[in-house]
Amino acid sequence: MLRLKFLLASALFAFAITLPAVIHAQTDMPQANIAYAPSMEQNDFLGLVERVTKLLQTTPVNEIPDEEHVIIIRCLNTISIHALKAPACFKLETVAEELSYSDKLIEKFTDWIPNRGMGYYFPSLHIELHGTPGPGSYYHIFSVNQ
To answer: CA 37, CA 69: separation in Å to the nearest integer?
Structure first.
């Protein structure tokens, strides 16, 4: 019985590891490297945050292109993971919350599945929002002094 449980657990683990690769192969969007966090200098990141904040304020969520959703999601995850307190970061989080951005995303991308930490994985975007997102779902921020 113990051997059967072990085999079942191994099979489930293997399925969980290969599922993202299968999902990526079935979509038209270019595959993102979900194991790699793109790097960005802190000032460039803050400029990007300001740009996507304006985009959210001026464009309905369902009209925003998929590529922009990936950037918005990476920005939101980065702010959370790095506990960034800059005013631009606070504004993006506030605007996203006021617009119910997460709720509108799961309405638009109905193929989402839960990720670790009670967040969302969007297979069609190859990205996770909230929870415990993988490295490809946020930016690695560095300062010029590093």
So the answer is: 16
Distance CA 50, CA 60 (A): 17
What is the residue-wise DSSP string for 31-90? Answer: PP-TT-PPEEEHHHHHHHHHHHHHHHHHS-GGGS-HHHHHHHHHHHHHHHHTT---HHHH
Q: Per the structure block, which two tokens stand in for 91? A: 């504004």
User: Mean pLDDT for the chain?
Assistant: 82
Instruction: Mention every residue, 6+ apart, whose C-beta is less than 8 A from residue 14.
Output: none
Segment 78-120, tens digit of pLDDT: 999 999 999 999 999 999 999 999 999 999 999 999 998 899 9
Taking the model in full, what pTM does it have? 0.75
Long-range CB contacts (within 8 A, 24+) of 97-100: 99/56, 99/61
